[in-house]
Amino acid sequence: MVDYYGFREKGSRTVEQLEDDLLDEASKRIRRISPGRVLPYVQRHEFESLLFADVGEFAALDEDAPQAIDTLRRVRAQFPTPEDINDSPETAPSKRIAAAIPRYRKRVHGPDVAGRIGLSAIRAACPRFHEWLTQLESLRA
Q1: Which of 15, 24, 26, 34 is 20 to 30 A removed from 99 (C-alpha atoms)?
Q2: In whole angstroms, what is the distance from residue 101 CA to residue 40 CA?
Q3: Given its phi and psi angles, is residue 105 left (phi above 0), alpha (psi -120 to 50 degrees) or beta?
Q4: Is the pLDDT confidence value at 62 over 70?
Q5: CB 75 within 8 A of CB 51
Q6: Which residue blocks in 1-64 are alpha helix, DSSP H?
Q7: Which residues, 6 or more positions from 136, have their beta carbon under 8 angstroms from its beta carbon?
Q8: φ, ψ of residue 51 in degrees (nearest 5)
């Protein structure tokens, strides 16, 4: 799993093209890859977009949570899914979160908030991410 927003040297390639290129490169470097056993996933914008599946879980990070949560809910309402939240330098999901909750630190709070939201809620709100996890789960079979 790699964030598209932070993917260096992506050029004009789409998320899907990057995933194909990652798979091709892995196949070259690892000689015995069974088809379907490596499933690259490029998060369309950045990991934090998944956290918009339930912005209420940010409440523990901010004493002024109601206002911050309301701001994040308005952001979420502008997009069909959390995965569609914009990736420009000013409006990337992490920048939107940090603007509403200045205390937010990606590496510290991101995993904690994701854990509180829960995988089921994230999957329900983020169809592309859900599809990738479903493919990973099928590897057990």
Answers
A1: 15
A2: 31
A3: beta
A4: no
A5: no
A6: 15-29, 48-51
A7: 39
A8: -70, -15
Identify the three-state secondary structure at position 138: helix
Report how far residue 139's alpha carbon sits from residue 36's, in angstroms, rounded to the nearest whole number.
Answer: 8
Candidate from 9-13, 33-37, 100-104 with smallest mean pLDDT? 33-37
Please give the C-alpha separations between residue 94 and each of 42, 44, 75, in angstroms, as whole numbers. Answer: 16, 13, 12
- Rounded to an integer, what distance in angstroms lies between the CA atom of residue 47 and that of residue 115? 13
Q: What is the DSSP string of 63-113?
A: TTHHHHHHHHHHHHHTSSSGGGS--STTT-HHHHHHHH-TT--HHHHHHHH
* Whole-number pLDDT of residue 87: 63
Per-residue burial over 32-52, b = 16 or more CB atoms within 10 Å of its CB, e = otherwise: eeeeeeebbbbbbbbbbbbbb
> Residue 135 contacts by C-beta under 8 Å, 6 or more apart in sequence?
36, 39
Is the pLDDT confidence value at 25 over 80?
no
Q: How far apart are CA 94 and CA 4, in angstroms?
A: 13
Helix (H, G, I), strand (E, B) or coil at 42: strand
Place of tokens 């940090």: 98
